[in-house]
Amino acid sequence: MLSAPSAAVVRATLPAVGAHLDEITERFYAGLFAAHPGLLRDLFNRGNQAAGTQRQALAGSIAAFATHLLDHAEQRPDAMLHRIAHKHASLGVAPEQYAVVHEHLFAAIAGVLGEAVTPEVAAAWDEVYWLMANALVAIEKRLYEESGERGLRQWEVVERVEETADVATFRLRPVDGGPVPAFRAGQYVSVRVELPDGARQIRQYSLSGAPAETIRQISVKRVPGDGASPDGEVSHHLHARVREGDVLELSAPYGDLVLDDAPDAPVLLASAGIGVTPMIAMLAQLAADGHRAPVTVVHGDRSPAAHALRAEHEAYTAKLPDAALHLWYEQDAPAGTRTGFVDLTGIAVPAGTRAYLCGPLPFMRAVRQQLLAKGVAPADLHYEVFGPDLWLARG
């Protein structure tokens, strides 16, 4: 994929570029938003920008892509590219925006590395960028064609359900009265709201209802600030201001954390906290399909009171002929559940299990290691990160 001369240059300069990626991405976003302030106001997540997590995710993806090109010259890192492309498609990213990113990213590289960016170095990294960008454009084009939708559609809130003190479910139907296409269990939609300062911010929320329903359902956790990052702007807006009869703008469903087409394969669904949302849709789909292979359902939460969609968790599991629900709570664990963090010791994991993980990164890393130790193949481990994907950036 990467030409031999460029590969040699990238290999030689990757340590220097990698060592300065945080500074490069910080300068990149500063320049991009100075030239195009509307992108920060109406497209990029302002909370992630303030916390620096988007910069870390961008740096991680650049380093991972370049490293893959060098280590696997004949292969493309499709898993990473598809994950990014699904997020881009849900935001409505257009091909021409890649040229804008290129302009400001390479200005940042030159600004940080200075004279080290010779014409030869610039040409090699230019090749890396356009290999990645053109691959994403092609994948996104196919995703747009498959969805049959482009842009956002208006949906009316027909019901709001308070699941816990910090999680609310919004059930929605299209304002135009048109059809509601089925989605693949595990997918998410982008939701755009107008905030009090006029910004039109977008966030992704997993669809937490059954895929065949004619009503879309999202379950939103109110995200508190933690000192390093501010309160979640959109989640707080939805909790504080959105009620039955209000209208939200939603994208078509996207996301690559979806059930494999393997009806005879054992399945394991592991979640923590609000990571339960895509798992509920998956359980609903498995129950509707009459999945007969073993299904192991694992969930961890702060307490039973904080466990959103617990009734659905239990009801869908009970509908499956060979399924077991294992629950861990940090406090107030009732009889039949466990106290503490999720620990798969003693949990049987059948051979050939396909595992799906969603929750905080430390939880997913711990569960992944335990599943690998139990013999689950790396290719059968799938995950979803809410927010910037820092899995690559942090390891």
Describe it:
By secondary structure, the protein is α/β, with parallel strands linked by helices. The protein contains 12 helices and 12 strands. The protein has helices at residues 4-19, 21-35, 37-42, 46-51, 53-71, 78-91, 97-113, 119-147, 233-241, 276-289, 310-319, 361-373; strands spanning 153-162, 167-174, 188-194, 200-206, 216-221, 247-250, 267-272, 295-301, 323-329, 338-339, 354-358, 381-384. Strand 3 (188-194) and strand 4 form a beta hairpin. The model is unreliable at 390-395 (pLDDT under 50).
In short:
The chain is of the alpha/beta class and 395 residues long. The chain has helices at 4-19, 21-35, 37-42, 46-51, 53-71, 78-91, 97-113, 119-147, 233-241, 276-289, 310-319, 361-373, and strands at 153-162, 167-174, 188-194, 200-206, 216-221, 247-250, 267-272, 295-301, 323-329, 338-339, 354-358, 381-384.
